[in-house]
Amino acid sequence: MSRLFMYTKDVQKLTGKGRTAAQKIIAVIKRRFSKSSREQITVEEFCKHTGLTLDLVLAQLS
C-alpha cells in the first residue's frame, strides 16, 4: 500500500534534517501549493518540491 501524506518524521528521514527544519520545509510546501496550516501535504507534492522521484521516496518510506 502506498503512502498518501507526508509527516515531519518522514521529511526528517528523507532529508536528514532536524524536526524544526523539517517543519519549515513542510510550511514552504504548503505555501507553494496554497494549503492551509491544517491541510496535509501529499507525497506527490513533496516530490514536486524536492525534485525526488516518487519511486525513490516511497521506497525510503517503506
Global outline: globular
Number of domains: 1
Helix-strand topology string: EHHEHH
* Main sheet properties: 2 strands, antiparallel
% residues in beta strands:
5-15%
Uncertain spans? none
Q: Strand order across the biggest sheet?
A: 1-2
Figure out the total of helices: 4
- The pLDDT mean sits at 94
Q: Provide the structure class.
A: mainly alpha
User: N- to C-terminal separation?
Assistant: 9 Å
Helix content: 55-70%
Count of DSSP E strands? 2
Rg from alpha-carbon coordinates = 11 Å
Topology of this protein?
Layout: E1 5-6, H1 8-15, H2 19-32, E2 41-42, H3 43-50, H4 54-61
Antiparallel strand pairs: 1-2
Helix pairs in contact: 1-2
Quick recap of the structure?
The chain is 61% helix and 6% strand. It contains 4 helices and 2 strands; from the N terminus they run E-H-H-E-H-H. It has a two-stranded antiparallel ribbon.
